[in-house]
Amino acid sequence: MHSHRMFETVLSITRYLLAGASVLVAALFAGPSFADDDARPVKVMIINMFGGTPFPFSEASAFTSNLGLTKSIQVRGLSPDYPNILCNSDDVCQMVAGEGHANVAASTMALILSEKFDLRRTYFLIAGIAGIDPHEGTTGSAAWARYLIDYGISWEIDAREIPGSAADPTFPVWPYGYAAIFPTDTSTQPWNSLPSIPTPYHSEMYQLNEPLLQKILSLTSKVDLTVNDNPTAQAYRARYAEAKAKAPPSVIQCDTMAGDTWFHGIKLGERATAWTTLWTNGKGTYCTTQQEDNATYMALTRGAISGLVDLDRVAVLRTASNFDRPYPGESAWHSLCGCGPEGGSGGFVPAISNLWIASAPFIKDVVVHWDQWKHGVPK
Questions:
Q1: pLDDT score, position 37
Q2: The predicted structure's pLDDT at residue 53
Q3: What is the pTM of this model?
Q4: Structural domain includes residue 329
């Protein structure tokens, strides 16, 4: 009898411990809970790539000062250079993610998984500077993207060895040394062919939410971006043959190309245009080049899969700090380094300034009319 009671006691304790362990395991593997007041709701999360220096040498500083982002919240896993998220009383926050694919992906995942913010209704504004195709715009212009295309996920052969060159005359001449990974067409035009098999990357091309894009364009399209234009930028862009390159900066809609390598020149610019056309089935228009956006969006996609982010609330803005190719008579190297006889493009300061100017109407409208925006993009 005594042993029987002892057995029941041990059994009860075991059941209790197992129940407690089950609760603990469930808590460890469950998604973040936003019932806790510590999970701060965010209306707009601005993602810049570099900061830490005063305006106009930082993508972040104009947003920080104009929005009064004075509340600092430390988040584990952010860049050691930018370890804090900054917020204001209107629930607008800012993350400086660092530059390049690896930094932005790591920082964005750290933000999403921190459990310090409720991001389920948050509008994400990815805002940074970029190079621009002179056929589509000029320095200081602000380009809202519909498509995000990854420049780097491809096969590459050195241009001196591409088919059709002296090193390999057995194939038709390639216009550049890039092709899709395992292209469908391996003999006639490999460079103009999509992959023949599904690739494991899942980040070659993204399309952003069209209603959000159109709403933002309606709010920002008439913003004056000439306030910080300067004689150096005006003189430099006048050397280009393209009408859009010569024009004053404005808000435009065209698409953006991401890759860690800063490509430059006419040939690689033409490849960016063709690559965009290929991946968007002719619907996209390449105009800006930068290092981060597909990686940032991939991290947001992972958050959306976990129910922590709404991908219909992501916008991408890139302002042009330089052209992606030289003007007639200029070398590609001098255009890239800004070290030629004519100097640089003069576009850096206007690009930094216009990040804030072009996006401010959108940010302010979300805050002022949050009762409409919180349910989705207003009609």
A1: 59
A2: 77
A3: 0.89
A4: yes
